[in-house]
Amino acid sequence: MRQNHYLSPTLRDVPSDAEVSSHQLMLRAGLIRQTASGVYSFLPLGMRALKKVENIVREEMDAAGAQELLMPAVQPAELWQESGRWDAYGPELMRFFDRHKREFALGPTHEEVITTLVRDDVKSYKRLPMTLYQIQTKFRDERRPRFGVLRSREFIMKDAYSFDTTQEGLDKSYESMFEAYTNIFKRCGLDFRAVVADSGAMGGKDTHEFMVLSSIGEDTIAYSDTSSYAANIEIAPVISKYENSDEKESSLEKFDTPQLKTIDELQSSLNIGKNKLIKAVLFIVDEKPVLALVRGDHEVNDVKIKHFYNAQVVELASTEETIKYMNCEPGFIGPINDSQEVEIVADKAVQYIVNGVCGANEKDKHFKNVNPLRDFSVKEYMDVRFIQEGDASPDGKGTIKFAEGIEVGHVFKLGTRYSEAMGAVFLDENGKTKPMIMGCYGIGVTRVLAATIEQHHDEKGIVWPTSVAPFDLHLIAINMKNEEQKQLSEDLYNQLKQSGFDVLFDDRAERPGVKFTDSDLIGLPIRVTVGKKAADGIVEVKNRKTDEVLEVSTNELISVLHELNDRLA
C-alpha cells in the first residue's frame, strides 16, 4: 500500500482528552478518530489490525468446531422480556421504538436471539452438542466512556454460545473454548491471566475472565504468590481465620463525635485501630434494605451480597433511603437499631470485635464498647468483604497479591438459565423433553487491539507484535526526487509483495525526519530504508522492537527479512 494516498493521518501532539497510552497512540498513529463520546471510526491502519485480530479469533474458533453465523444488532423487546432481562439489564441497554411504536434494543449481547434460533430449529439430542459464534458490533450505553475503545459505547465483539445435552457436555464445551481463548491471546502476543470471575448480568455460576496485565486495568486480580490461583477481586473468597480476644467487655456507651463521619476521621480522633471500628453500609437489595457490616480496615463487597441473596439488583442506598430506614444521614449509621425493616449481615471478622465503635443512628453520635454478640443481632456472619493483599490465598497456598488487568474475554457456564426461560428444549434418547444446557463465550475484539498496544509500545510509539501488525514492514524511500532511490524503492516494493510481504510504502514527498518519526509511531515490526547507498544496492533494515539496524544487500534482502520475521513471530 502506497502511503502518499493512504488515509493514515498522524498527530505530533498527545490529544488532551486521551488518558491512557493505547488511546493516545491509536489517535496519534491514525488508527481511529472519535465520532461521538465512546463512538469511534476505525481508519485503514486500525481496520487492518482489527482484521488481524478477528482472523486469529476466527481461526481458533473454527479449529474448536464452532460455526460462524451473523445475528441482527436490532433485537425486539419481547425476547428480552421473555428471558427476564429487559428490566434487570439496566440503563446500559440502548432501547428505542420503531415507527410502529414497537420497542427494540441495540444488542449488547445475543443470548436471547441465539436461544430462539436454536430453540426453533434444533429439536433432537442427535443435533447436539453445537457451538455457534459471530463477530459483530455491540452497543452499551456506558455511563462514562473512557480510555478510547477500551470502554466505549459501540465495539466489536466475538460472542459464542454452546448447547449441550448434559452437564458433562457443557464442561467439555467450556474447556474447549477456554483452550481456544488461551491460544487466541497467546497468538496476539498478550501477557494475560485467566481468573475466576463473577457472571454479572449474564447469569450462570462457573465463569472465568481473561485479563491482560496492565497498570491502567479497571479490574483488580487477586493472585497467590506461590500457586496458580487467580480471581477477580470481586469474587475471591476470604478464608482468613480470626482469634478471640482476651479483652474484657465494657458497658455500651453513646458519645459525641461531631463531624466525624469517616473511618479515617474516627481513627484519627479516637486514636484507635481501624480493626476496632465497625463500618456499616446500607444497600437496597431487590428493593429491600440490607445493612452490611465489616471492620473498619475492610471494604464491603456488594457482589458477595448479591450472591448471598441471589439478587437481581444491589445498589448503595441514597441519602434519602438511608434517612428513611436508619433515621439518620450516612456517616453515623450502625447496627444497634430497633428497625424491623432492615436486615443485617456481617463479615466474619466483625463478631470477633471487642469493645468496638459503631454509628449510633443519630447525627454526630457513635457508640463505644460495642460487642456484636451482646449488643445487636445479625442474620448471618459470612464472607462479605473484599480480599486484601496479604490475606491467605483461597486455595490454601501462599498469600494474596494484587495486579491490575484489562478484561478482554469472558467465558460462562450458563446452564439452563435461558433455555428454561425461553423454552429451548430437546428430546433425549428416551423421548423425554429436557432443557438445553448452555455456555456463553465473549471476546472484546476492539479491546484486544487496545490492550495489545498498552503492552506493546515505547516512548516513540506502537511496537506491534507481528501477528496483529497492520503491515509486515514499512518501506521508506528517503528522497523520492532522487531517481536511483525512487527506482530501487519501486523495484523493492514489487519484489517484497511478490515474496508474500504485506508492505506499507512511504512514497510521500516528506522530510526524512517526518518519515522516520511516523514510522516509529505506527510501529510496524520491520523497517526497510532506501537511502544514500541505493546506487550500491544497499538498504537499511531496522527491527522496531530492538532498534537493531543492519545494512543489507538487495540480493540478500528477502532471505534476511524472512529470517527476521521468523524471529519476531
UniProtKB/TrEMBL annotation:
Coiled coil stretches, renumbered: none
Gene Ontology MF annotations: aminoacyl-tRNA deacylase activity; ATP binding; catalytic activity, acting on a protein; proline-tRNA ligase activity; transferase activity
SUPFAM superfamilies cross-referenced by the UniProt entry: Class II aaRS ABD-related, Class II aaRS and biotin synthetases, YbaK/ProRS associated domain
Localization in the cell: Cytoplasm
Reaction catalyzed: tRNA(Pro) + L-proline + ATP = L-prolyl-tRNA(Pro) + AMP + diphosphate
Pfam family, one: tRNA-synt_2b
GO biological process, one term: prolyl-tRNA aminoacylation
EC number, as in UniProt: 6.1.1.15
Domain Aminoacyl-transfer RNA synthetases class-II family profile: 33-465
Keyword GTP-binding: no
GO (cellular component) term, any one: cytosol
Alphabetically ordered keywords of this record: Aminoacyl-tRNA synthetase, ATP-binding, Cytoplasm, Ligase, Nucleotide-binding, Protein biosynthesis
Free-text note regarding domains: Consists of three domains: the N-terminal catalytic domain, the editing domain and the C-terminal anticodon-binding domain.
NCBIfam families attached to this UniProt entry: PRK09194.1, proS_fam_II
Record note on quaternary structure: Homodimer.
Family stated for the protein in its record: Belongs to the class-II aminoacyl-tRNA synthetase family. ProS type 1 subfamily.
Reported function: Catalyzes the attachment of proline to tRNA(Pro) in a two-step reaction: proline is first activated by ATP to form Pro-AMP and then transferred to the acceptor end of tRNA(Pro). As ProRS can inadvertently accommodate and process non-cognate amino acids such as alanine and cysteine, to avoid such errors it has two additional distinct editing activities against alanine. One activity is designated as 'pretransfer' editing and involves the tRNA(Pro)-independent hydrolysis of activated Ala-AMP.
Record protein name field: Proline--tRNA ligase
